[in-house]
Amino acid sequence: MWIYPxxxxxxxxxxxxxxxxxxxxxxxxxxxxxxxxxxLYAVHNMPSDEAVAxxxxxxxxxxxxxxxxxxLNLRVLNGVDLKELKLIHNxxxxxxxxxxxxx
Length: 103
Known about the structure:
14% helix
């Protein structure tokens, strides 16, 4: 379960116990707890203007369009009961733009 608040609305505490890994196109990194390994949140890595200029248009829109978001794993937030939430399903995997190839 993920929520996508604006980056400036999120305050992360305890980042000294977090390890961050980059993946795919390098646009996003995933933050994991060093103790238990749970995926906590994602960090947007804004590409250089030169890298953006080389991207296909759909990738460019995706790369820049989500820069203001800080995806959070709802399961790690204190006081949140997932059963009480009104959920919207999004098949993000099918929406990955660009030249990503399933290995």
